[in-house]
Design brief:
With 325 residues, the protein is mostly beta strands. Helices cover 13% and strands 50% of the residues. It is rod-shaped.
Length: 325
Amino acid sequence: MYSSDDLIGKRIIYAKQKFIKYLRIYKKMRNIIITIIILFSLIIYPKAYANPHFRAEISGFPIITENNVTANVNLTYTQMGASRLFIMSADNFITNNEDRNIKIPITNLYLLCDGEQFQISNNSWQNFYVDTLNASGSVQKNLCLKLEDVGELPAGTYTTLLRFLNKTDMTPDYECEFLFTFIIDDKHSVISHSGEPVIVLTEEDIFNNQSYIKNQNDVRLDLISNTKWKLWLRTSNLDDENCEYYFQLKNVSGKVSAYEQNITRILPNQKYLLASGEPTLEGIQNGNKAPAYITIEYSFKNTNSDNYLKECIRQNPFTYILERE
């Protein structure tokens, strides 16, 4: 005879066994249902459309150097058995959206996966990864896109559409799209090779009330810009109210398309347009820099015939501003 405690204990053990059995059945059924849902969703999604089980996302910001652009990409996909991953570009070029004439051949773009580098093409799929494990579930793959040997690029937003393809043994082929995008910021700089203009009034000039004196050192400015540009002269307070100051552009070269050709009087605290031009870049390749420079002559003259100029050295500061046109 079993005591009441023994009967209760046996019933508890039996209930636990039944619960574990049903839990195992539930887990199996749940996995089967999830698999069916995944298979169904993969089948009904056409190839060229977004797929919730296959996506590529940028990781961080693209890294831009003088000759290369790199971007980390996280690829997430659902694996059903063995899986092979491919990439292809939908475009022939990586295009500057601000100027559609600026294009980088897609053959300069590479995919890095597990230490191997694969050139991306727009006319054939490139197989870059094979996973032979007969596994199922969500998988992540870290990739890197690298744009090589492009030189210094004109400013703007660059884009190209990439397509990823997953071929598996248990599902139809399915794709996802990724818009590869990076931004080249404006870059402007002015380099002076001769410093500030220096005007020297000598002994021969001090008794000449009609003196017209030029600077001893013409100012040469080298210009660097990855956009169309304008160069401005901004003046500070000038030294002598009895003198009129002037500038004249003597030489221009390279990507200068227009410039001030007249002798121009300078007034304090003003802004004068000196020149404008094209980007100092030629093409989309390494070593594509082109020169742009101007040479400026500064001068002053005595405006009051009743006064004599004092012997001295005049060295007036000016500010040069290079900006997008």
